[in-house]
């Protein structure tokens, strides 16, 4: 099995154990929102996907001209065709609009205008949908990794939306060619504020040291913001580019009690992510977090959640001590610590 396969297997086993034990597992805390379904998500969740153009008998209405799933003749599209789209389609006979129905019987949704670039992407994706429903996440994200710098704004935007949903371990494994100046030019666009986390992570994965000053300044500004914004993404990207130097900077922020604990958990998540992939870096992270934990036991729950969900049991002994001392009062943290200790003990017994 490849290193990536071993990492994914270890993480998956830990996550299953954690969830079976009833842990309060967190979604990626780099977001302050739940990412909306992408065009691809909508296609994967539909039994009826069609391409439509203006109805020759009533050009203010759509008519399905071909089907990706289901049958075009069964598609009764309850949408008026706005004049701008109608004129655009009339001027481009090969363009179409993509529609999909929610599930088998849900409402129809207009997903995207298919110009030649977008149409080519859909032609590539359509034969893969059945496989992607079962497996194939890596292949899916690999396709969009090649498009995040595309000249076509619609494809570029979709690519960022897709990569925004990828687990960090998949982002690390992708062959990403990140244009740092281009990402920096896009990162502050207010209409795409929710894409800041993925763009920050891509800066970290660029391998380009020119991104370091921006990330370092951003980490400080994010810390000072009210409320702190995307601290975990800045921290993860900085560590990716600077290694142990970045770890030390992030750990210094973890000790700052003026930052709310739920925000510091983003920093701990960044440390846990890197500890998961780099054993040498991880050993140093665990060694230094130990004394930090002894000075601030309120961090125990966050450490248990973020390291436990990744199958890192480095904190078994200090957590046993904390529980024996009875110094942790937060009930959610107590649950996380007890479950971490239980699963760590079971894991050790299996080794």
Structure explained in plain terms:
- There is one protein chain.
- The protein is of the alpha+beta class and 351 residues long.
- The protein has a domain at 39-114.
- It contains 18 helices and four strands.
- It has helices at residues 3-20, 39-44, 83-91, 116-125, 129-134, 137-145, 153-163, 168-173, 180-186, 196-205, 212-224, 231-242, 244-254, 261-277, 279-295, 300-308, 316-325, 331-350, and strands at residues 49-55, 58-69, 96-101, 108-114.
- A four-stranded antiparallel sheet has the order 2-1-3-4.
- A hairpin with a 2-residue loop joins β1 (49-55) and β2.
- α13 (244-254) runs parallel beside α15 (279-295) and α14 packs antiparallel against α15.
- It starts with a helix and ends with a helix.
Quick recap:
The chain is α+β, with helices and mostly antiparallel strands. It has 18 helices and 4 strands. It starts with a helix and ends with a helix.
Task: Pick out its properties.
18 helices, alpha+beta, four-stranded antiparallel beta sheet, 4 strands, 351 residues, 57% helix
Task: Summarize the helices and strands and which ones pair or pack.
Layout: H1 3-20, H2 39-44, E1 49-55, E2 58-69, H3 83-91, E3 96-101, E4 108-114, H4 116-125, H5 129-134, H6 137-145, H7 153-163, H8 168-173, H9 180-186, H10 196-205, H11 212-224, H12 231-242, H13 244-254, H14 261-277, H15 279-295, H16 300-308, H17 316-325, H18 331-350
Antiparallel strand pairs: 1-2, 1-3, 3-4
């Amino acid at each position: 099995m490849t290193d990536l396969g071993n990492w994914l297997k270890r993480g998956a086993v830990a996550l299953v154990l954690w969830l079976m034990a009833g842990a309060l597992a967190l979604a990626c805390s780099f977001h302050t929102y739940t990412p909306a379904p992408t065009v691809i998500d909508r296609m994967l969740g539909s039994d009826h996907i069609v391409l439509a153009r203006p109805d020759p008998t009533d050009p203010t209405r759509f008519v399905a001209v071909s089907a990706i799933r289901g049958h075009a003749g069964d598609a009764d599209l309850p949408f008026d065709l706005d004049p701008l789209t109608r004129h655009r389609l009339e001027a481009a006979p090969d363009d179409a609009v993509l529609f999909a129905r929610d599930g088998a019987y849900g409402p129809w949704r207009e997903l995207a205008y298919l110009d030649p670039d977008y149409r080519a992407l859909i032609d590539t994706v359509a034969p893969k949908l059945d496989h992607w429903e079962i497996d194939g996440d890596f292949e899916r994200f690999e396709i969009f990794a090649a498009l995040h710098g595309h000249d076509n704004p619609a494809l570029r935007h979709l690519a960022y939306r897709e990569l925004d949903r990828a687990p960090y371990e998949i982002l690390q494994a992708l062959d990403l060619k990140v244009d740092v100046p281009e990402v920096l030019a896009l990162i502050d666009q207010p209409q795409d504020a929710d894409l800041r986390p993925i763009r920050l992570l891509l800066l970290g994965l660029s391998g380009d040291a020119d991104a370091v000053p921006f990330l370092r300044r951003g980490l400080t500004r994010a810390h000072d913001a009210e409320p702190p914004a995307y601290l975990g993404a800045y921290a993860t990207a900085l560590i990716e580019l600077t290694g142990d130097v970045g770890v030390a900077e992030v750990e210094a922020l973890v000790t700052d009690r003026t930052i709310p604990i739920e925000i510091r958990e983003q920093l701990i998540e960044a440390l846990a992510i890197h500890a998961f992939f780099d054993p040498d870096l991880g050993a140093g992270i665990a060694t230094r977090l130990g004394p930090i934990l002894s000075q601030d036991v309120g961090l125990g729950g966050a450490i248990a959640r973020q390291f436990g969900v990744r199958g890192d049991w480095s904190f078994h002994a200090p957590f046993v001590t904390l529980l024996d001392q009875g110094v942790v009062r937060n009930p959610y943290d107590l649950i996380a610590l007890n479950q971490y200790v239980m699963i760590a003990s079971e894991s050790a017994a299996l080794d």
